[in-house]
Design brief:
By secondary structure, the protein is an alpha/beta fold. The chain contains ten helices and 13 strands. The protein is globular. The structure holds coenzyme A (COA).
């Protein structure tokens, strides 16, 4: 999907995020599974992750608070929104959507609201859809959220899954802008459902493939073939960034920040090195927050935005991949 001459531009008016206070360190995990701080840091780059208090926090509360923060930065109210999209695979309920509940909590009535299921690609997918709807003239102001309470679907006896994931939400407020040069310059989304069973959350036993039937992980929890996902991610991540940069004529020198899904430091580093992108242009927070699926890119974007690292002069790139298998990119000028 390429945007060239469009009647409207899209402005990012504000960003926000929310992470729970509770921390789960690698040393905490050694009390739950057979692992070590050194192994986790070396294989993933993660030192600690944030964990919701299930009695009072979850995907809905984080999504609500992240979007509220973004509205505050934009100096806007919920009632200014005409659409809310929440990228998530950890909604508390399949109906209603998290987006509808967030809309009610922030007085964003009668804004349209829906959840988008693209796993770790959820925030970038949602940003791409939102900006296309604004450019088409259908919506004027959209609240985009990526929110995930991954710890609600992690089996803490599984040492491959439990070490990776944390909870977080990130959000952005997008508005129509008269300058068509502002906004998303290029976006791409894709999926290869043939690899669905390398990262999945089965609700019924009959969905589990024969080769995973003996896996002791309870229904409703995430199952992951780490090696398969790693193989897919290392190649796809590089390809997606390369595609986004070449289609927009960006080079490692001219690109701004490359805002990557925080999956595993080795996956990010391998892509960064192969593409020759300087270290300071690829933001890393996986050490502190782990992999928060759809929460991760929005969280990174908010932290970069608030630190003044998203420059007007240089387009930035968002890139993600995850369950589905899915992938997405977006190149933005602010
Ligand atoms: N602690 C200590 N040892 C562990 C371990 C843990 N948490 N998890 C696995 N091991 C062991 C394995 O049992 C294996 O031991 P063996 O050689 O005696 O059989 C060894 O470490 C290597 O296991 P392997 O599965 O090859 O590790 P890895 O280097 O592939 O790392 C992941 C595992 C999960 C960190 C890695 O595969 C990964 O990051 N995959 C991608 C996951 C991802 O990004 N998912 C989200 C996508 S959005």
């Amino acid at each position: 999907m390429t945007q060239i001459a469009q009647p409207f531009g899209v402005r990012i008016r504000g960003t926000g995020s929310c992470v729970p206070e509770r921390r789960l360190t690698n040393n905490d995990l050694t009390k739950l599974v057979d692992t070590s701080d050194e192994w986790i840091i070396q294989r993933t780059g993660i030192h600690e992750r944030r964990v919701c208090d299930p009695s009072s926090e979850g995907t809905f509360t984080m999504a609500r608070d992240a979007l509220k923060n973004a509205l505050d930065m934009a100096e806007m109210k919920g009632s200014d929104l005409d659409l809310i999209i929440v990228g998530t695979v950890t909604a508390e309920m399949t109906c209603p959507s998290v987006a509808a509940r967030v809309g009610a909590a922030l007085d964003a009535i009668p804004a349209a609201a829906f959840d988008l299921s693209a796993a770790c690609s959820g925030f970038v997918y949602s940003m791409n859809i939102a900006q296309a709807l604004i450019r088409s003239g259908q919506f004027r102001t959209v609240g985009v959220v990526g929110a995930e309470c991954m710890t609600s679907i992690v089996d803490y006896t599984d040492r491959t899954v439990s070490i990776l994931f944390g909870d977080a939400a990130g959000a952005a407020i997008l508005t129509r802008d008269p300058d068509p040069r502002i906004g998303c310059l290029y976006s791409a989304m894709g999926a290869d459902g043939r690899g669905w069973d390398s990262l999945y959350i089965p609700r019924r036993a009959q969905e589990i493939p024969a080769n995973d039937i003996d896996n002791p992980i309870a229904l409703g929890n995430l199952r992951m073939n780490g090696k398969e996902v790693f193989r897919f991610a290392v190649t796809k991540f590089r390809e997606v960034i390369e595609d986004a940069m070449s289609k927009t004529g960006l080079t490692p020198e001219s690109v701004g920040q490359v805002v990557c899904h925080q999956s595993n430091i080795r996956i990010i580093e391998s892509a960064r090195e192969k593409l020759g992108i300087p270290k300071e242009k690829v933001y890393i927070n996986i050490d502190r927050f782990g992999n928060s699926s759809a929460g991760s890119v929005g969280l990174c974007l908010d932290q970069l935005w608030r630190a003044g690292k998203i420059e007007k002069e240089r387009p930035f790139v968002m890139v993600a991949f995850g369950g589905g298998l899915t992938w997405a990119s977006g190149v933005w000028r602010v």
